[in-house]
Amino acid sequence: MAKKLSLVLAVVVMASMILAACAPAATPTAAPVEPTAAPVEPTAAPVEPTVAPTKPPVAKIKVCEVTDTGGIDDKSFNATAWKGVTDAIEKLGIEGKYLESQEVADYEKNINAFIEEKCDLIIPVGFFLADATSAAAAANPDQKFSIVDQAYDPVIANVQSQVFQTDQAAFLAGYMAAGVTKTGKVGTFG
């Protein structure tokens, strides 16, 4: 009984934190102010509105993904990284493309192809691309990279590492599974 109660409490606490984080911010409302003086008549003639100068169109950001040998439809890092790019294409209007690496020798070749295409951000996916990414970053200090599943020590200035703490989410999922099992057994795959 105590196990189920603590599980319910944990779920309620997590749900309330999620809902609180999603709630819209309070909007301040101005209190009505009583007028203190009669309105003043304008003394100057109306001025023609000026037209603001138009800004040149902003160039689209170009994001380029290099997959590991798993391919773009691997149902893992490559696919989820590409999903992020396609969401940004739809919602933010960026330009995005990818190159699939068929073999390890393709990593460096694909990264260099995107450097030549002048991609604003190159996303190498997976720690297998670590060596090719660090070499390209050293040779091209103005090129921005964001590598998935790899962290560098020391940090490389033009490389953003994307490392996820999957153990924390897995712990919570396991805790919840243990709390709701009717057989006393749980399993996982992946």
Key traits:
12% strand, Rossmann fold, five-stranded parallel sheet, extended, alpha/beta, 190 residues
Plain-language structure description:
There is one protein chain. With 190 residues, the chain is of the alpha/beta class. The chain has a domain at 62-166: Rossmann fold, CATH 3.40.50. The protein is 38% helix and 12% strand. A five-stranded parallel beta sheet has the order 2-1-3-4-5, sandwiched between helices. Strand 3, helix 4 and strand 4 (144-148) form a beta-alpha-beta unit. The chain starts with a helix and ends in a 10-residue tail after the last helix. Residues 5-9 have low confidence and may be disordered.
* Model regions low in confidence, pLDDT < 50 over at least 5 residues: 5-9
The CATH topology of the domain at 62-166 is given as: Rossmann fold
Beta-strand content: 5-15%
The CATH homology group name of the domain at 62-166: Response regulator
- List the secondary-structure elements in sequence, H or E: HEHEHEHEEH
Based on helices, strands and strand pairing, what is the structural class?
Answer: alpha/beta
Spatial strand order of the main sheet: 2-1-3-4-5
CATH class of the domain at 62-166: Alpha Beta
Shape: extended
Helix content: 25-40%
Radius of gyration: 27 Å
